[in-house]
Amino acid sequence: MALYQQFSNALSASLIDSSKIILALSGGMDSRVLLRLLAIYAKQHPTRQCLAVHIHHGLSDNAERWLADCQRWASEEGITFAAERVQLSLSDRESVEKAARDARYHALGQYVEADDVLLTGQHLDDQAETFLLALKRGSGPKGLSSMAEDMAWGKGRLVRPLLTTSQSAIASFAQQEKLEWVVDESNEDTRFDRNFLRHQVLPILNHRWPSFAHAVHRSARLCAQQETLLHEMLRPELDAMLGALGGLSISALTPLSAVKRDYLLRLWLELLSVALPSERQLQVLWQEVACAQDDANPELKLTSGSIRRFDGQLYWVTHSQDVSGSSQCWDLSSKLPLPDDLGMLRVISATQPATMTLNRSALTAPVTVTFNPEGLSAHPQGRRGSRKMKKLYQEYRIPSWQRRRLPILMANEKVVAVANLFVDKAFYGSDCELIWDK
């Protein structure tokens, strides 16, 4: 069974022993075929944990029936099933397609843990549609790379096992296996750009050039290879431009050509998982934020956050929760998850003093972690005298929006350390080192 072998090979390249497989099960033909392939795989690998997740958008009058169908099919195939109901909140400039896609992937992300693999059913014809949509938007090589067969996604990986398979081959398999599937009536609505391409444009192109979809996939792959090469060449240069708190040096970018500077800015934002700005937004970013007057406090607002300038560096500032009221007890023996996706704190053994090494024997009281510097003072190791935390943050050049998001270790109402910044003189030593994994 050629399609199953392709499916198995795609999984084998991404799975490790601890990986769980999560299938995004819409109930359409493509995901229904994936469900059958996953069932075959699960029987051959009985120790592998597999889960099918259906996202209920509530956009169709048939949504409840689709959920019931997906649950029944998963049960028949012997695959554990889960469903998530989502509500869409549409902005004035956002399409229903994008809102539904974003809500769907956000819901799926809740099931994907470290090293897990998320399966989605995009195929060769979907790739051609994605490429043409990127072309319509005037995208460069990054956008024209379209969809990857295997990519890092959230805490795990996203794998598209059918991406090199035509829809007709998938349909043949579905019919051969006598499968049932959901038919979404909205897929016929050509007011949506993707449906317009699917029903009115691609049939003409495929009739004229039967290998058109394969050629598009090849072009997308070449664009992706070009992007990978540029990343490999420019990532070390970008890393050298970044400060300890993630700020990007404006002075390092200034002498570069506009083409190279814009690419480095895009790469910086991409590594931060930020939706890439348009060409016009990049111009605004450089001219009105990076090159603003020294006494200005410029800001470029984007969908999920904003870009701000401080002390000669550009910073990405996400829309975030106020964590200044948070307080957590910590015994230092295991990793401590921080609120609002601020990462983890951990302590490792140390053999010599360093910036963030502690004297464990000085920690005679329970340690707590807080984020509110108000009213606190500290005496950083290597500096003279004690200072108010507000003053220290100014001296350490901490941007104002980060000053209540830095983890502060406390013991007996005294500051032990501020993660990645300093250890108080009274608690400094060489026993162990404080690490903040962001």
Automatic annotation (TrEMBL):
Keywords from the named record: ATP-binding, Cytoplasm, Ligase, Nucleotide-binding, tRNA processing
One GO CC term, this protein: cytoplasm
Catalytic activity entry: cytidine(34) in tRNA(Ile2) + L-lysine + ATP = lysidine(34) in tRNA(Ile2) + AMP + diphosphate + H(+)
KW Glycoprotein (keyword) present: no
Stretches assigned to the Lysidine-tRNA(Ile) synthetase C-terminal domain: 367-436
UniProt family annotation: Belongs to the tRNA(Ile)-lysidine synthase family.
Name used for this protein in its record: tRNA(Ile)-lysidine synthase
Organism: Vibrio qingdaonensis
